[in-house]
Give the backbone structure.
Amino acid sequence: MRLVLLGAPGSGKGTQSQLMMRHYGIPQVSTGDLLREAVAKGTALGKAAKAAMDAGKLVDDSIVLGMIRQRLARRDARKGFILDGFPRNVAQADALGTLLEELGQPLDAVVLMKVRDKVLFQRLAGRRTCRRCAQVFNVFTNPPPKGGCKGGQAHDLYQRPDDNEQTIGRRLEVYAAQTRPLVAYYRKRGLLRQVDAEGELDVVEMRLEQALGRGSSPGKAASRAVKKAVKKAVKKVVKKAAAAVRSRVKPTPLQRARRKATKVVRKAGKARKKVVRKAVKTARKAVSKLAR
Ligand code: AMP
């Protein structure tokens, strides 16, 4: 399957492409991720792209097209791909058409992920990514679970530099001016499908599959969602039980120290009571002696 996910920043293209990637075994090709990687590595390409990215503008077409050409030439893209964040203007869409014609791999569909502007804004402003495991969360709608990262550690979150209020506004303007015309572009070519991309991840995933006619009936998707929920609950119970067994079998140094301290306190309490009892007994004896 060769697919373009089209939509404004924050419409969930990245999240849904990752789900689909796992599902269909085809790579997600995100120009945003490729550019961020180049910036992080400090390559010449990354240096050339950084200023435009920080300002919420589009990076030069020649840079992005070169990257896409290289990425689609890789072996894993032969059986299909999900383009996320590309194309972003008509020139890029034309260039993509030419490239895919050369490769003999035409697009199967372009899916527009529809989300209202106010929801987009909230999603982008609340978005946080974990440095360690790269999972994406939202501080308002999907906060990270405590101790949910590798090895039971807390997620190490950061906010993308272009997710600040001013840059978000700029990116949404750029989308409206340069990327939205692609809706008509692909509709004219009979490739466009549309999906309501607001709501729970599972629900949006189900709508996407239906839009693509991937044979996923609401029943099938619902039973998959149930299986997923059961798997999650079982995992939680197993984790809890394992922690309980671990704590019984081999106490941690802190638990050992706590137990030792409790014993010492108990012993001291008993000794104190013994001394008091003895003193009371002696005093009683002395009093009864005096009374006689
Ligand atoms: P994204 O992660 O898709 O939101 O992209 C982050 C930033 O990377 C964008 O705001 C642009 O500056 C740049 N970028 C990503 N994809 C493209 C593209 N196809 N054309 C031009 N710039 C892009």
Observations:
- The chain has a mean pLDDT of 89.
- The CA atoms of residues 56 and 166 lie 9 Å apart.
- The chain is about 60% helix and 10% strand.
- The beta strands are 2-6, 28-30, 81-84, 109-114, 127-130, 136-138, 157-158, 192-196.
